[in-house]
Amino acid sequence: MVTERPARAARTVTRGAAVAAAVVVLVTAATAVLVALAAPGDSLRVTVRLLPLVLVVGALAVVAVLGTAVLRARTRRRSTQRLEHAREQARRFEQEARTRFLARLDHELKNPVTAIRAAVAGAGDDAGPEERARSLATLVSQSTRLSALVADLRKLAELGTQEIEDEDVDLAQVVRDAVEDVCAQADAAGAPRPAVDVALPTAPWPLPHVRGDVDLLYVAVYNLLANAVKFSPPGTRIEVRGTDDDGTVLVEVADAGPGIPQDEVGVVFDELARGRDARGLPGSGIGLALVRVVAQRHGGDVTLRSRVGQGTSVRLRVPTAGPSGGGPTVR
Predict the structure, then answer these.
(1) What is residue 329's predicted lDDT score, i.e. its pLDDT?
(2) pTM across the whole model
(3) 264: CATH
(4) Would you give the end-to-end CA distance of the chain in angstroms?
(5) 56 and 174 part of one domain
(6) The pLDDT of residue 281 is above 60
(7) The domain boundary residue, chosen from 75, 91, 107
(8) Is the peptide bond between 204 and the residue preceding it cis, with omega within 30 degrees of 0?
(9) Residue after which a domain boundary falls, among 37, 70, 91
(10) Which of 160-164, 199-203, 320-324 shows the lowest mean pLDDT across its residues?
(11) pLDDT tens column, 5-46
(12) What's the order of all strands across the beta sheet hosting 237-244?
């Protein structure tokens, strides 16, 4: 239905041009005849001789009008076809993304729901105290897992539409705070302290400030660091680098982990995306999706490069706050 409308419009334009051209010819011919009838003597003969020329000029005018109309109609039709093609591709991409999300959601829900059902069945009247205790522990852990998943999905949905703060943010300090918190969390859990190297410029100037929500930017940087720690073998180093890149602050988190297969790189920022090598690790696949949304809400972006067996580098880009942010003025 949508593609038929431009076609009808093009036909209407062409018919209108044809009518206009016919009117031009008739008016030209009628004018020439009237002039010929009104001209006396030699003037009549001259006018009659000029009549074919007048008709030729009129015919050329017809051709010009029709040609212009046809070209305009064809251009409009091609533009409409390109627009419809782009819309169809967007609809197909959205449908594919929705299908992937539902498949991942089904996978994330299936395991805890199955475990909860088994725990309920194992806590029957004929179960012993130890079996009931194990079932109760399973119910608590799996219900907590489901609650966390629902909370993360709600947070992700709200983040895409809610108002965010617009304040001056020292992203270098955000990086330092996130690194300190990731290491403190490992210490509290009794896990090996991550080996994190931080390189933030101080000369000729420090990282410029950015405008945005300091809490959300902290969440983005923290998630990148936590993700790198999760996939880094003990003892390997994680590098965090800050760069002032012509009006953009770039924060890069690089690890020497197992890397991501190329067929998974394009979907790692999708909701609930979990690679084949990550399915045995804790997490819901929301972290990188949150980073992507935070970056977009701040007018920036996030990109990822990875090589299997060598590691992964994720780059978060956020526009600077301008001259007041402490960096140079870019002209």
Answers:
(1) 38
(2) 0.60
(3) 3.30.565.10
(4) 49
(5) no
(6) no
(7) 91
(8) yes
(9) 91
(10) 320-324
(11) 555 555 555 555 555 556 555 666 666 555 555 555 555 565
(12) 195-199, 237-244, 248-255, 311-319, 301-307
**Which residues form the domain of 58?**
4-91
38 with 186, same domain?
no
Question: Strands (DSSP E) along the chain, which ranges?
Answer: 167-169, 195-199, 210-212, 237-244, 248-255, 301-307, 311-319
CA angle 83, 86, 89 (to 5 degrees): 150
CB–CB of 285/272 below 8 Å?
yes
Match 């942010």 to its residue by tokens. 325
**How many domains in the chain?**
2
- Are residues 319 and 181 part of one domain? yes
Q: For 52-68, what is each residue's pLDDT tens digit?
A: 666 666 667 767 767 77
What is the rounded distance in angstroms from the CA atom of residue 327 to the CA atom of residue 325? Answer: 6
Please answer whether residues 253 and 314 qualify as being in contact, where contact means their C-beta atoms are separated by less than 8 angstroms: yes
Tell whether 189 and 321 lie within a shared domain: yes
